[in-house]
Specification:
33% of the residues lie in helices and 16% in strands. By secondary structure, the protein is an alpha/beta fold. The chain has three domains: 11-84 and 157-439, Glycosidases (TIM Barrel), CATH 3.20.20.80; 90-142, Alpha-Beta Complex (Oligo-1,6-glucosidase, domain 2), CATH 3.90.400; 449-495, no CATH class. The chain starts with 10 loop residues before the first helix and ends with a strand. The structure holds alpha-D-glucopyranose and calcium ion (CA). The site of alpha-D-glucopyranose has 10 residues, from loops.
Length: 496
């Protein structure tokens, strides 16, 4: 929500909408990064961890949001981006000046390779090589993401302590928990432990033991003493990874959000895979861990467009996905607008997209020989901007998001899909989410109950029971456009 009419959502606008969140029933808000940032990657490139991005307001605005949230018993979860900073951060500006300044080891510098080129062949997530040459030092620095996001050097003890100071500062300010960004790559393993046959730096060094060690140190020194919740955004490749990051005995995160690139998710998701994973993940963490559940976030296309049918069965799919999310074991994370069934957008030209990842993707497809139309069509499907279009509050201009020109196009369906309309309509997606959240609060079986699949492994129905203390609930979801039947023992169920 834009509170001052400049077209950009901000803290003042968010504070105005706290009653909406209360009405929905959520008990915590995960804020995307709001720190000072040149915004190369929507705030995930931080130039000052101790201040607020000017477009979003000032520290007093953040404090007003915090107080308003706490007054309504809503906890605040801040995003911590600690794998990298912005190249405009003071540390980096100093670090790149010379090889012997006080900040020289805060980032990952290497001499050129034998041929004068990059130290190794790693590719970065947002296109091109993961190394950038800095003539001032005559060395390359590593950036697993954009070149404006240099990787911090966690092997340097002093740098680590300064990073922990950031967390301590926000603890003091009354934050209740953290979502920790891209945290699987702290130990780069460049002494021979990284798997150099993997082209991307992030796949090559993911989940090395040093990373786990640094996470444990961070938790022990910063969030544990203040008893704050942490959810790590991590690279989960197998069940052991899930256990390592999210088992209580490990002293790492309370929950983990697994990262899967949108393009991979679009190509590989299926009800069969969901069933398999739900079962395996439940088994993996039931003794000693906990799950973070989500179908949407700021890095994925909209869930009703991706997993449902955003046309003929828009309402049914949006509700079904909400039911699935809230009845699985674990803590459900609802992404803004999901509770209204907001859908993907198709912007008419690549210039209208804002996301660095989308622009890079478009360029890559063009380089592979696609026509501009083909490249645009593919980019529209995978774009992270699908999830980032302004929230649709009502049917007034710009969906009620701003009185100015919005920073990113508002979806044209705001006249029919918007919060004001859905709050009035008992059959809406919003009211359905409200009920789901209430059900979870009122029925411990949905939170603590055992989980058991009760549907065939093949086919579009995902059905399971949750049971606790002699109470059993059945949740059945039909991921197809046709009616389905389901037998539980000899009892037939109809799944519309
Ligand atoms: C995480 C964020 C994503 C960001 C990236 C780099 O995956 O969720 O939005 O671009 O890290 O910080
Ligand atoms: Ca604004």
């Amino acid at each position: 929500m834009d509170g001052n009419g400049d077209g950009i959502g901000d803290l003042k606008g968010m504070t105005e909408k706290l009653d909406y969140l209360k009405e929905l029933g959520v008990t915590a808000v995960w804020m995307s990064p709001v720190y000072a940032s040149p915004n190369v990657d929507n705030g995930f490139d931080i130039s000052d961890y101790f201040s607020i991005m000017e477009e979003f307001g000032a520290m007093e605005d953040w404090e007003a949001f915090r107080d308003g949230a706490h007054a309504r018993e809503i906890a605040i979860i801040m995003d911590l981006v600690l794998n990298h900073s912005s190249d405009q951060h003071q540390w980096f500006k100093e670090s790149k000046q010379s090889r012997d300044n006080p900040f020289s080891d805060y980032y990952i510098w290497r001499d050129p390779g034998k041929d004068g080129g990059e130290p190794n062949g790693w590719l970065s997530v947002f296109g091109g090589r993961a190394w950038e040459y800095a003539p001032e030092r005559g060395q390359y620095y590593l950036h697993l993401f954009a070149k404006e996001q240099p990787d911090l050097n966690w092997d340097d003890e002093e740098a680590r302590e300064r990073i922990f100071d950031i967390i301590r500062f926000w603890n003091e300010k009354g934050v209740d928990g953290y979502r920790v960004d891209a945290i699987s790559y702290l130990d780069k393993g460049m002494d021979g432990r990284a798997d150099l046959s993997e082209p991307f730096g992030t796949t090559s060094c993911a989940n090395l033991e040093g990373t786990h060690r640094y996470i444990r140190e961070m938790v022990a020194k910063t969030t544990r003493p203040d008893n704050l919740m942490t959810v790590g955004e991590v690279n989960i490749r197998n069940l052991q990874d899930a256990k390592d990051y999210a088992s209580a005995s490990r002293g790492e995160f309370d929950m983990a959000i697994g990262f899967v690139p949108p393009i991979v998710e679009i190509k590989t998701w299926s009800p069969q895979r969901f069933k398999q994973e739900a079962k395996e993940q439940y088994e993996a963490l039931r003794e000693d861990g906990w799950w973070a559940r989500f179908l949407s976030n700021h890095d994925k296309p909209r869930q009703v467009s991706l997993y449902g049918n955003d046309n003929e069965y828009w309402l049914e799919s949006a509700k079904m996905l909400g039911c699935y999310l809230h009845t699985l074991p674990g803590t459900p994370f609802v992404y803004q607008g999901e509770e209204l069934g907001m859908t993907n957008i198709k912007l008419p030209s690549i210039e209208e997209y804002d996301d660095i990842d989308t622009k890079n993707y478009y360029r890559t497809i063009l380089e592979k020989g696609a026509s501009p139309q083909e490249a645009l069509a593919e980019s529209q499907v995978v774009s992270r901007d699908n999830a980032r279009t302004p929230m649709q509050w009502d049917d007034s201009e710009n969906g009620g998001f701003s009185t100015g020109r919005p920073w990113l196009a508002v979806h044209e369906n705001y006249k029919t899909i918007n919060a004001a309309q859905q709050m009035r309509d008992k059959d809406s997606v919003f009211c359905f989410y409200q009920s789901l959240i209430r059900l979870r609060k009122e029925n411990p079986v949905l939170v603590h109950g055992d989980f058991a699949l009760c549907c065939p492994q093949e086919g579009p129905v995902i059905a399971y029971t949750r049971s606790l203390d002699g109470v059993a609930w059945l949740a059945a979801h039909n991921f197809s456009g046709q009616e389905q039947g389901l037998f539980i023992g000899s009892i037939p169920f109809y799944v519309p």
